[in-house]
């Protein structure tokens, strides 16, 4: 933490204390309240952490008002436009763009870790065939700590490195296996002669009965989806990984916790929920009905794929994702896809509606990623697994950063207690 001579004065019941203020390299100043309870005997109250910095980090920066997303300082549109996912993984993990030699070594290492322990197949067979792929992935990722004991010691930098590589390499294999298992098709092994995105598409869509050629435009779009979902500051699932890691849990358990949190429809589950909503709307003429429901305070319905906790003008990832959506749909000749027609009409209607404009509700990354994945032939149940495999590098990078901070301690938020004060037990006959 940087030193500072800036302070804020807080006066409570006539007693004043000085709280340090730190200035970041980008973004708002932060007020250091670590000594607040000791000095003033009060807690802060911020249930959704909307005004609370949980850590200091050098990995990703978001400016919600300006629609800025930087990974180690590089804008997301440049990375998504000219880099590729494994290079972005290197950048997030190590903090700089690799030399050609470093990138080649890194990609070779990841490629050689893509297979999973053969005995894990038995673990898959324990699930019902109609299990949601996310339920399988949560279980299998957690179970990795039972298969890869030689990379669970978080105090050993080499084991942390191996666990990081294993997770990045094996998540596509696990996600593809979860998909194949739920559709009753045989698992497809990864190939070392394919790039990361092509390998994933082949593991999902190849069958033993015929050769499978990956379409390079789809592989490029898949890689771009991975890149656009790689990391995103201290979002709910990343904060979950950090909190799990603060207890000293092994990396596989921490990432399994992140997968579980991402599954929620308000977070990573939004892309599946968005496509299901578009299919429920069905045709553009029903859009007014759903917009009215989204605006109705008494109706819990929300437009999935719209709005964001941080971005309050536009999600820069959605801008890039929208370009990819047009490319993929043109390639597949599905530009007249009814779901897409509804999506485009909903986007136009919502953006023209003062309710959404005033509340800064616009299509987020999930709105367009779902359309691309649907066009590629993925079932909606595979949308969040793809988000999870993309975000694994972000979770792992943030996990490594937290462990490398010698000052980090177990996370233990306090509360505003509103329950009963002490009272005596009453025997059942006296109740
Ligand atoms: C992701 O944090 C991250 O970085 C997440 C993520 C990442 O990369 O990790 O970017 C990925 O999770 C993207 C968001 C995906 N979720 C959805 O698309 C689900 C639909 N969106 C909403 O659930 C909501 O917008 C959130 C959860 C995303 C953000 O919620 P906020 O900013 O806390 O907003 P809010 O719930 O406080 O709502 C503010 C107002 C409310 O109205 P009022 O009470 O002020 O009158 O906006 C309304 C809400 O009712 N509102 C919506 C809405 N989202 C908010 N109304 C209709 N439809 C919506 N989608």
Could you characterize what this model shows?
It is a single chain. By secondary structure, the chain is mainly α. 50% of the residues lie in helices and 6% in strands. It is built from 18 helices and 6 strands. The strands form 2 sheets. A 3-stranded antiparallel beta sheet has the order 1-2-3. Strands 4-5-6 form a 3-stranded antiparallel beta sheet. The longest helix is centred in the middle third of the chain and has 26 residues. It binds s-citryldethia Coenzyme A.
Number of strands: 6
Query: What overall form do the CA principal axes indicate?
Result: globular
* Unreliable parts: none
Strand/helix succession? EEEHEEEHHHHHHHHHHHHHHHHH
Gyration radius (Cα, Å) is 23 Å
Major sheet = 3 strands, antiparallel
- Helicity, as a percent range: 40-55%
**What class do helices, strands and sheet pairing give?**
mainly alpha
Strand content: 5-15%
Number of helices: 18
Question: What's the pLDDT, averaged over the residues?
Answer: 94
Give the ligands present.
Answer: s-citryldethia Coenzyme A
Largest sheet: spatial strand order: 1-2-3
Distance between the termini: 56 Å
Layout of SSEs?
Layout lengths: L6 E6 L2 E8 L7 E2 L4 H5 L19 E4 L4 E4 L2 E2 H7 L2 H10 L5 H12 L8 H5 L8 H15 L9 H26 L13 H10 L10 H13 L7 H11 L4 H12 L7 H12 L5 H9 L20 H17 L5 H14 L2 H5 L6 H12 L6 H21 L28
Antiparallel strand pairs: 1-2, 2-3, 4-5, 5-6
Bound molecules: s-citryldethia Coenzyme A.
The site of s-citryldethia Coenzyme A has 19 residues, from loops.
Structure at a glance:
This protein is mainly α and 431 residues long.
């Amino acid at each position: 933490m940087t030193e500072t001579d800036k302070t804020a004065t807080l006066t409570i019941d006539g007693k004043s204390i000085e709280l340090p203020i730190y200035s970041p390299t980008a973004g708002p100043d932060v007020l250091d309240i670590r000594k607040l309870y000791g000095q003033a005997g009060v807690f802060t109250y911020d249930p959704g952490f909307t005004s609370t910095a949980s850590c200091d980090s050098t990995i990703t920066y978001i400016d919600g008002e300006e629609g800025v997303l930087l990974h180690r300082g590089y804008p997301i549109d440049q990375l998504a436009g000219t880099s590729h996912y494994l290079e972005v993984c290197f950048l997030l993990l190590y903090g700089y763009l690799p030399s050609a030699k470093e990138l080649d070594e890194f990609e070779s290492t990841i490629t050689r870790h893509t297979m999973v322990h053969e005995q894990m197949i038995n673990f898959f067979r324990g699930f019902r065939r109609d299990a949601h792929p996310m339920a399988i992935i949560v279980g299998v990722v957690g179970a990795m700590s039972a298969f890869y004991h030689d990379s669970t010691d978080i105090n050993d930098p080499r084991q942390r490195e191996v666990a990081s590589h294993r997770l990045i390499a094996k998540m596509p294999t696990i996600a593809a296996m979860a998909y194949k298992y739920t559709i009753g098709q045989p698992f497809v092994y990864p190939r070392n002669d394919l790039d990361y995105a092509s390998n994933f598409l082949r593991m999902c869509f190849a069958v033993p009965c015929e050769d499978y050629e990956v379409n390079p435009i789809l592989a490029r779009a898949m890689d771009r989806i991975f890149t656009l979902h790689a990391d995103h500051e201290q979002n709910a699932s990343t904060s979950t990984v950090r909190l799990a890691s603060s207890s000293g849990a092994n990396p596989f358990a921490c990432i399994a916790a992140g997968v579980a949190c991402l599954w929620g429809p308000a977070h990573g589950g939004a892309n599946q929920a968005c496509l299901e909503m578009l299919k429920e709307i069905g045709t553009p003429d029903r859009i007014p009905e759903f917009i009215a429901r989204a605006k109705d305070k008494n109706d819990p319905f929300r437009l999935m794929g719209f709005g964001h906790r941080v971005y309050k003008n536009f999600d820069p990832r959605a801008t890039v994702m929208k370009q990819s959506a047009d490319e993929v749909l043109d390639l597949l000749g599905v530009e007249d896809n009814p779901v897409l027609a509804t999506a485009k009409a909903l986007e136009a209607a919502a953006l023209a509606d003062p309710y959404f404009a005033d509340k800064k509700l616009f299509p987020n990354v999930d709105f367009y990623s779902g359309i691309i994945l649907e066009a590629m032939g993925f079932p909606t149940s595979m949308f969040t697994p793809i988000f999870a495999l993309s975000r694994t590098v972000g979770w792992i990078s943030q996990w490594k950063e937290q462990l490398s901070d010698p000052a980090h301690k177990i996370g233990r938020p306090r509360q505003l207690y509103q329950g009963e004060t002490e009272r005596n037990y009453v025997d059942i006959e006296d109740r």
